[in-house]
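Researcher: Next sequence.
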Amino acid sequence: MGTGAGTGAVTGARVAAIDVGTNTTLLLVAEVATSATGDPLVLADRAEITRLGRGIGSDGRLGKEGIERTLAVLNDYAALARDQGARIAAIGTEALRRAPNAADFLEPAARILGAPIDVITGDREAALTFRAAAASFPREAAGVMTVVDIGGGSTEIVIAEAGHITWRGSLPLGSVRLTERHVHHDPPEPDELSALSRAVSETLAAVPFPRSGTLIGTAGTVTSLAAMALKLDDYDAARVHGFRLGAEDLAWEVARLGRATAAERESIAGLDPRRADVIGAGALIVAEITRRAAAAEVLVSDRGIRWGLLYESLGSR
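Model: Next structure:
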């Protein structure tokens, strides 16, 4: 379905990296840095919850409302990219991999962006996530590092040692997907939470988690949990990126979310109310991964797939 958008290095150019996910649509506009740090110069960084993949837990089809919401956001992103003189590199993930009617979205999206959306494989999604994490945390990347990207429709996991990937995979675990499949009451009933836990545990059983090194978590579920732990009234990427979310604090959040109603979750400091209906399932995934990796904490990264795509497109890092 994809045609390779975002795969060419353009040294010195500005790039608008767009990540169209199951739950969110993200934009990062930047150019090659001239600073000593080597970080790209960020011109714009936007995130909108568009729920393109609503229904992924049932028939997998994209709904009309999700398509319209996401196209409206892409229209804004395209205008911003034009204003910045940036070339667009756009990717799509699990919802677009699965949807039998993906063309209903991809064709008008390509017209809006002036470039096709590359619907990437789970392996490539994992590789981009790892690239962003390794660039953000080079000291940790020199040792054993497990990078986890929990999305709305899937979870990507990369295990590496001294910068060399030893295992990677894309699993059918996501906050939207699991919620739609297993949660039908507010708050969730005990048997629904048990079904969620079983689904997560059974799917993760095949992952050869190392029992040492650093566990890095990225994407909206993990950054939301960090913002909740920090009790942020307004999201602050600078405080979230590099935050260390302890396993005990994570377990407390999982328990709190499991007994809270939707209205109670919506009022939690640090949590975007638009994530309140799916954050519980996402938190369960994070907690089970932390347990299986025997990790005392999760090192939080605010720089996910869009950053990996940016580095790739700019030919940097």
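Model: The two ends are 28 Å apart (CA to CA). The longest strand covers residues 41-49.
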